[in-house]
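FYI - complex with oxa(dethia)-CoA, inputs then prediction.
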Amino acid sequence: MSFRSEIIGCGSYLPERVVTNAELSAKIDTTDEWIFSRTGIRQRHLAADGELTSDLALKAAERALDDAGVPVAEVDLLILATTTPDNTFPATATKVQNQLGMVNGAAFDVQAVCSGFVYGLAIADNFIKSGQSKTILLIGAETFSRILDWEDRSTCVLFGDGAGAVVLRAGKGNPDANVGETGHNRGRGVLSTHLHSDGSTNDLLYVDGGPSSTQTVGHVRMVGREVFRHAVINLAAIVGEALEANGLAPEDIDWMVPHQANKRILDGTAKKLGLAEEKMVVTVDRHANTSAASIPLALDEAVRDGRIKRGNLVLMEAMGGGLTWAAGLVRW
Ligand code: UT7
C-alpha cells in the first residue's frame, strides 16, 4: 500500500510586538521609502525579551493540531525547521515535543535556513511514503531578530520573527482520482518535493559565528545583490523542475506560497512563470522575512481567509543561506 502525505491542518503564531519601518528609521539610517520600495516590507513582528523560538513554535503547533483535530498522542514525528534554535543543543524540536506532551516517536531540527520548511516537507513526505511515520507535525519557527546586527542597515530591516506549522498524515490521496497526465497528480497530498544546495556560495549569506568557529552566536551577513540574482535564477529553475516532474503547467497552479524575502523577488518569479499576481500569497509587507517560518505563516493565512481550498494545487518555493533552494507541490 502506498501512502500520500496529506496536509490536514495548519496554524501559526506571530509575536505581539509590531515594529514599523518608521520606528526603525528613528534608530538607524534608513527610511520607510527605501525599505518599502526595495523590499515591499512595511513592518515586522519581533519576539519579546525572553520569548524563545520554542515558545513561538509551541503556539503554532498547538493551533495546527487543533485545526487538524489530531491529539498529540497520535503524532509520531516532530520536525522543526529553524536557524535560530533556543540552544546549540538539544534540538529545539525536543523542547517543543516535551511542552506538547508528545511521548511517542522522535523529534529533530532541520537547518536549511529560509528553505528549512520545504526541506522539512520533503523529509516528512519521505517518512510517510516509506511507512515509517503516520502523523507528522512540521513546524517552521524563528527568532531571527536575535542574530541580526542592528547596526547593519542592509540586513536588520529585512527580517522578522514568527512560526507556522502543519500536520501531515498518511492517506490514500484519493487514488480513484489519480487520472492526471502522469497518473499521479490529481489526488490529495504532497505530489513531489525538490531540494538543491550549493556550498560554493556559503559566503553570500551566512552568520559570522558559531559554536565550533568563534564560540559566539554571530550575526547575519549577506551580499544582498548577489543573493537576489541567485534567487531569481534558482527559484524559476526549481519551479520549472517541480512542474515538469508532475506534467503540469504554470497555469495549473492555483496558489503560489513562496518564501517571503522580497516582494521584487516574488514579482520577478511570477513574471518569469507567467503567473497572475493574484495567485501569489504575499505576507512580506506585514511579516518581513521570517526565514523558515515564512511559508507556513503565509499558508495558514491563505487557508484561514478561504483563499486556499480543498483540491487546490499549491506550490511552495524558497531559497536561503547555503545556498539552499527547494520546492514542493501539494494538492490541498
Ligand atoms: O531569505 C534569504 C534570501 N534573501 C534574499 O533573498 C535577499 C535578497 N536581496 C535583496 O532582497 C536585496 O538585495 C536587498 C533588499 C537586500 C538590497 O536591495 P538592493 O536594491 O540590492 O540594494 P543594494 O544592496 O544594492 O544597496 C543600494 C544602496 C546602497 O547605497 P549606495 O552604495 O548605492 O550608496 C546601500 O548602502 O542602498 C543602501 N542601503 C540602504 N539605504 C537605506 C542598504 N540598506 C539600506 C537601508 N536604508 N536599510
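Confidence is low (pLDDT under 50) at residues 178-183. Residues 30, 34-35, 38-39, 114, 153-154, 157, 224-225, 227-228, 231, 261-262, 265, 289, 319-320 surround oxa(dethia)-CoA (CB under 6 Å).
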